[in-house]
Amino acid sequence: MGPLRYRLPSRISTRAVLARLGDTAIIAAEPGGASARQYLDTADWRLYGSGRTLEVGADRWGAGTLTLRDARSGEVQATAEMENAPAEARDLPWDPVRSVIEGRRLLVQATAQARLQRLAVLNPDAKTVARVFLDRFVVVEPAGGRHVLRFVTVVPVRGYSSWAARITAALEEMGLQAAGVPLIVSILAATGRAEPGADRGPGVPLEREMPAAAAVGAVLERLRNHVVANEEGVRQQLDIEFLHDYRVAVRRARSMVRQAGGILPAGQVSALAGELGWLGALTGPPRDLDVHLEELEGRTERELEPLRAYLAEKRQHAQLQLLSALDSERYKLLIDQWQSMVSGSPGPYSEEAPDAGRPAGEVADEHVARAYRRVLKRGRAIHAGSPAEALHDLRKRAKELRYLLECFQTLYPDHDRTAAVKELKLLQENLGEYQDCQVQAVALQTMADELMERRVPAATLMALGRQTDELERREAQAREEFEARFARFSSARNRRRLESLVGMRT
Length: 506
Fold this sequence. Notes:
Number of strands: 9
Largest sheet: 9 strands, antiparallel
Number of helices: 15
Structural class: alpha+beta
CATH superfamily of the largest domain: CHAD domain
Order of helices and strands: EHEHEEEHEEEHEHHHHHHHHHHH
Number of domains: 2
CATH topology of the largest domain: CHAD domain
CATH architecture of the largest domain: Alpha solenoid
Shape: globular
């Protein structure tokens, strides 16, 4: 039996709980206290996803403690004294946690003022047989709003579970109900936020019978929210995943809009698709440079320092260009127009869009089936002598299919859809490796030419040559593996899976 936390409703006072506990057992006070708490996690909630929460608590004297807990039970897994709140993986004292968040910045996800009252439950021999925590949290919103949460937590002592059961029975007789969700979920819910990670993916709750325009609008709204949520991290370069997530949301949205002909008004589709293409193009160069710099992390060879400095310089220049775009009226208009499209001003329903009112499931099936057939047709046409462009085009078509399956995921049975996406991912990995190696090899040649003009050491140019050779080796390997990857994707078993999913015939 682990700790059990109950939500203490406003109608029941702390005094009433103490009185009931006193009627049930011998209760003794233990040291409590008050602290300011900050709950830390990455933007994509990697710690919570691993079953942990991380908090920084400071008492009134300013002493700080870093506490790692089991997300569901609240049990303390580790603590450490600290002077400054951790910002990156290297700031943490625990290797398993460092590996979980590697590469991402820790952010303050929630703030609360905590007042803690600790009680010991004693048996007739004055031995502690259980503990009860009465906790009061004042959750503080960034805008200044405050929300009070109160909990009673019963913590069993090994070998005395019957005493903990007696205490929980008394609390339940008072009308207290188990919290049912982790503490961080309750804290976020108090400020109107969803469970950690619940709104990270493109999938939103959709019904097959709802109007297709409403479904597409909901997906585009979620993707717009992703763009807005990641924008500040992109501006500040908090970590490279902010730009990656921002870029993926833009590309998903553009793909969705381009396939929304007949669902959304043609004028809106054309305008938004064009502007999303502009935004996607702006994020390409800084993302490519992030990838190059990431590949150099951990490399200590002196001859790579001129390359590292060159890439950092280029990255800073690309960042300035991106910031200029994000500060432009064009970008602000894009975000506003995007919001207008999904909020109904002007709305997605129009005579220009004959499919707007059709059932979303029916329309999604047609789009998925059409995208799947395109992938099969182009993939089957590729042979040993096909040019690289044929594989690049197939990669684009595969990405369109993937985005459709991800954005409309709640319209399909999870098991069947997940299995289909798994096979598609394997194909995409192969096509992505092939194209990325080609693009990076060309980029390295351009870098080599520019670095030569800067008269860098010959050792640096030789290192670039070795990297190019390795990229060409990987490119050739990916090309050799393509046939097997595509054969697996286009197998009869996988075709039946897709046919069953959307009711098509290939």
